[in-house]
Specification:
This protein is mainly alpha-helical. The chain has one domain: Orthogonal Bundle (Arc Repressor Mutant, subunit A), CATH 1.10.10. The chain has six helices and two strands; from the N terminus they run H-E-E-H-H-H-H-H. The chain has a two-stranded antiparallel ribbon. Strand 1 and strand 2 form a beta hairpin. Helix 4 crosses helix 6 and helix 5 packs across helix 6.
């Protein structure tokens, strides 16, 4: 029985190693320079480490936002996409959105407010977990 438990632990450890093997940290050493100093991936990217970390974090946050926006109704999603330029970067005013969708500006405002409230609630709930 003890042999089975040990074998199972070893298999679990090997699976874990295989899973994290593909993960790469920006701060892992990848070699040494002429003077023998350790070089990391951040060093060769040609920018300050803070900028790289911020860029990675921003992309992560953008993906989280896209996931949450995907949970909105079709109309809420469309209004936010147009209002904040989520698809093509081109932002529109509430008046432009109202004209494009054939609804009133005040209705666009209500849809926008409701969608933002939903997203805020979702992110707040997520951070409390």
């Amino acid at each position: 029985m003890l042999g089975f438990v040990i074998e199972n632990e070893i298999l679990m450890h090997l699976r874990y190693i295989k899973k994290v093997k593909a993960e790469v940290s920006l701060y892992d050493p990848i070699g040494v320079d002429k003077e023998g100093n350790e070089i990391t991936l951040v060093d060769i990217l040609g920018t300050h480490p803070e900028v790289v970390a911020e860029t990675v974090e921003n992309r992560f946050e953008q993906n989280r936002l896209r996931e949450k926006v995907g949970q909105l109704t079709r109309r809420e999603k469309k209004v936010l996409e147009l209002r904040f330029g989520l698809d093509n970067g081109a932002r529109q005013t509430q008046r432009e959105i109202a004209k494009n969708l054939g609804i009133s500006r005040s209705y666009v405002s209500r849809i926008e407010k409701k969608a933002l409230t939903k997203l805020t609630k979702e992110f707040t709930t997520e951070s409390l977990r």
